[in-house]
């Protein structure tokens, strides 16, 4: 089954996970990603265009979850930007998602945080588009 592209915010969440040091590359085919609250560990497997992760987006909604995106960035299969990643450090993703129950609202909050940390919204929006285009070209399938 081919995975759908994720909601845009998942690209930002992946960048934040990397900045927080929550992504551990085990080998070229495997990563572990700790959730933003530290209470879950997502296991990511990548073998060519076959991927899997036990995060909710991948399991239940059949889109490329943020743990897969973060792993692909660290494995250099997707673009990565250190400045953008650093600007998204320390964001309480799960808390915000549960409080606002709207990815669009949380995305606005995250863009405002990034702006306070000297990251231009237009540049960040453009980077999201780049990642989503790269994901489309990868044609990832769920194992």
Percentage of residues in strands: 15-25%
Q: What Rg is obtained from the alpha carbons, in whole angstroms?
A: 14 Å
Q: Runs with pLDDT <50, length 5+?
A: none
How many domains comprise the coordinates? 1
Mean pLDDT: 97
Compute the number of helices. 7
In N-to-C order, the SSE pattern is: HEEEEHHHHHHE
Shape: globular
End-to-end CA span? 8 Å
Q: How many extended strands?
A: 5
Strand order of the largest sheet: 1-2-3-4-5
Structural class estimated from helices and strands? alpha+beta
* Helix content estimate: 40-55%
Sheet with the most strands, sense and barrel status: 5 strands, mixed
Q: Could you characterize what this model shows?
A:
This protein has helices spanning 9-19, 56-60, 66-74, 82-87, 93-100, 103-116, 121-138, and strands at residues 23-27, 30-34, 41-47, 50-53, 141-142. With 143 residues, the chain is an alpha+beta fold. It has one domain (9-142). Helix 1 (9-19) packs across helix 3. It is globular. The mean pLDDT is 97.
């Amino acid at each position: 089954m081919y995975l759908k592209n994720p909601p845009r915010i998942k690209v930002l969440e992946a960048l934040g996970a990397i900045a927080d040091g929550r992504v551990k590359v085990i080998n070229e085919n495997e990563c572990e990603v700790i959730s933003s609250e530290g209470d879950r560990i997502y296991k990511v497997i990548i073998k060519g265009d076959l991927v899997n992760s036990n995060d909710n987006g991948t399991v239940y909604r059949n889109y490329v979850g943020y743990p897969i995106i973060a792993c692909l960035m660290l494995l250099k299969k997707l673009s990565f930007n250190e400045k953008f990643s650093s600007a998204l450090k320390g964001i309480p993703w799960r808390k915000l998602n549960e409080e606002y129950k709207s990815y669009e609202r949380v995305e606005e909050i995250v863009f405002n945080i990034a702006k306070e940390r000297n990251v231009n919204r237009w540049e960040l929006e453009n980077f999201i588009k780049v990642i989503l285009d790269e994901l489309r070209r990868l044609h990832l399938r769920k194992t």
